[in-house]
Amino acid sequence: MTKLLTLRVASLSFIFWYTLAKAQVPMPVIFDTDFVMPPQDDSMALMLALQSPELEVLGITTVAGNDSLERATSDVLRMLEIINQPEIPVYVGANMPLVHEASDFARTNYGNWYSDDTPPMPSGGYPKISAQEDSAVSFIVHTVMENPKQITILAIGPLTNIAQAIRAEPGFAVNVKQLIIMGGAIAALPNGAGNITPNAEYNFWVDPEAAYVTLRSDIPIELSPLNVSRKSALTKEWYEKMVAIETPFTSLLKEALGQRFERNPEHSFFMYDQIAVASLIDPTLVTTESMIVDVNIEHGISYGVSVGGRESWPGAEGAKRINVQHELDWPRFIEMLIQRVQQHPNKQ
Q1: Which domains does the chain have, with CATH numbers?
Q2: How far apart are CA 341 and CA 253, in angstroms?
């Protein structure tokens, strides 16, 4: 009996430590981004990802979106220098959408995705480190195919790189563990209007065809649309709490946001990409609903508009069912964000 009890205790002990060790293994992630230095949401999202022991950022892939591809690459390399993490590889991706060409509307509204101008100098000067020789699409495909069902992709810009990866390798989509997308706006849910045209969200509007290809693939997808972003509000009070401790991250935020709040203390900022990252770290921060989601790729007044329905509808044949975020536990989310950007890099 004593021997049996000893074996049982030993077995339970092994299960406990195995479970604990498994829980502490970080999730391998590819971070696909149209990066711009703070106050852009991509930069704050990267801060959160790099400061979260739950995630292991295998590489950063850049894409044209908020600004040019050249600026996305230059800014993210400089960010890695500032936070003393130059070992994280950066891969250069698509410099233009699959089909979408810059129009007068694009050139006179938000964004500079079509530009090939020399990027502006980031804070502290241009980066001394360089991007990898391998392309973003090659890195994404090889990493996923060499680690089937193990890699999560965080796509927080236009989906050009992801669509190109799907087209480049027939087995790619079914071997991605999960894809978290910041994009779209679902009219069937509250707060579903667009932010570049009346109904289109910016990331999907920049490259609607890439969004169409990606959403209709076999990748397990969770969408973080404008609906959930509009449940957030970074006010001056939250900002001051965030920058109360001096770190490389909070110094960048002070430089970028301090004067804005001084000029307008009542202003607040939505969180976009930050929520997508946080939902991967702690899925209980968001409420999701299973919906069929598609994207309009017809060139007209609804170009780039995402449409979601609980059941299929005429024209959406072939569209897939995905999880769509629509509610946010704001207090828990903002406390997580503050706590993690206040940590010094590599001191989690």
Answers
A1: 25-341 (3.90.245.10)
A2: 10
Residue 235 identity? T
Amino acid at 207: D
Query: How confident is the model at residue 19, as a pLDDT?
Result: 47
If the chain, 348 residues long, is cut into consecutive pieces of 10 residues, what is the mean pLDDT of each piece?
A: 47 45 80 95 96 97 98 98 96 98 96 95 95 98 98 98 98 98 97 97 98 98 98 96 93 90 94 98 98 97 98 95 98 97 75
What is the reported pTM?
0.92
**How far apart are the C-alpha atoms of 185 and 175, rounded to whole Å?**
27
**Nearest-angstrom CA–CA distance, 64 and 145:** 25
Asked if 44 contacts 38 with a C-beta cutoff of 8 angstroms, the reply is yes
Residue with tokens 């044209």: 64
Is residue 35 a contact partner of residue 72, using CB atoms and an 8 Å limit?
yes
CB-CB contact of 276 with 181 (8 Å): yes
